[in-house]
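Protein details
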Amino acid sequence: MAEEGGSGVPRLRSGGDLGPPWSWPGSGELREMIISSELLKANPLGDPAERPVWIYLPPAYRESLTERFPVIYVLQGMTGQLDMWRNRSPFRKSPLELYDELFSDPAVPPTILVFVDCWTRLGGSQFLDSPGTGNYHSYLCEEVVPAVDAEFRTLAAREHRGVAGKSSGGYGAMVTPLLRPDLFSGLASHAGDALFEYCYLPEFPQVVRSLRDHYQGSIERFREDFQSRAGISKPGDGPLVNVYAMAACYSARADGIPELPFDPATGAIRKAVWERWLEWDPVRLMARRHQAAQSLRAVYLDGGRSDEYFLEVGAVAVKASLEEIGVKGVHLELFDGGHGGIEYRYPIGIRFLAEALRAD
């Protein structure tokens, strides 16, 4: 019962934990680090160079003062920022609560999770280095990983280090070990961006139509309007935001200006720019970086059968690309569902990696 003052108005109270459904008691520990990044200083978007990093320590971490643990770096999807890991869908636990529930099971190999913030004012970075967004791939690999290894009892070797994520985070999970096989040996991608002609191309005519009807054909006019109001508040905002952000990640000019892979007036594909996007497609990248791909110890892929961006089709294509170059044991699951509301799948990928990366 709420406490009441003399006027009958409920009084605020501090302390205590109301428990479910507002929160579930945790058995692990969540810590926060602030990294003052040299690599993100003077980034082209003027985004903060100081970034929070959350570190989840499983219950086993406090039970021993000497044991060291594998680490999985967890990446967010497009528009994600770190505090969103606390969000919950109706009638469900939050991702943090799901992870804690997973590692409360003694049958699951204890593993440290590191939640990395690579948000940009465009919505995301795809966890790449780009003149359009900043050096977010290098930030993850050259600043976050060493900081975590220095502060916590990690098994600081590639054999015990993985990366996981959903959507754009799943994309980051796929490409990061290919770019830095010396650091990462396992990945788990939930509906990660792949097979770009299916997941991105369908949005191009939507953008052309929105620019024509509302912004005099100018992406710059859209950006000015978008920055002057509440985000994602007009029809057509989603594809416009996504395509522009992807252009900043995949096809920015040396001066940082994103180049669209199509003519905004006619919709005609700009072949040279589109080819720059395709070079970053995990389906193609796996084949080109075959030695890095062949060194992977664990690959988990999944996607909903009705994913709105056809990313389960991309997952199948990634698996095929890996198998063509001789990578064995790629785990693929297709499930009933779309692109959103699939946070209940995250612990499945994390457990798969935890099993593969466990201490010898």
